[in-house]
Amino acid sequence: MIAAALMTAAVLASAAGAPAPTGGETGLTKAEAAAGWKLYSGANATSMWRSYKGQGFPTKGWKADKGEMSLGKGGGGGDIITEAQFADFEMQWNFKLGEKANSGVMFRVAETNGATYETGPEYQLLEDISFGAKPTDPHSCAALYDLYSPAEGKVLKPAGQWNEGRIYLHSGLLQHWLNGKKVVETRLYDASGKPTEEWSKKIAGSKFKDWKGFGVLPKGHIAIQDHGDTDLALKDVKIRDLSTPDAKAVAIFNGKDLSGLKPFLPQGKAEDVWQIKDGVLICKGNPVGYLRTEKDYTNFVLTLEWRFDPSKGAGNSGVLLRAVGEDKVWPKSVEAQLQSGAAGDFWNIGEYAMKADASRTKGRNTKRDPAAGEVERPLGEWNRYEIICDGGTIVLKVNGVEVNRATDVAVTPGKICFQSEGAEIHFRNINLVPLD
Question: What is the C-alpha radius of gyration for the chain, rounded to an integer number of angstroms?
Answer without folding.
Answer: 22
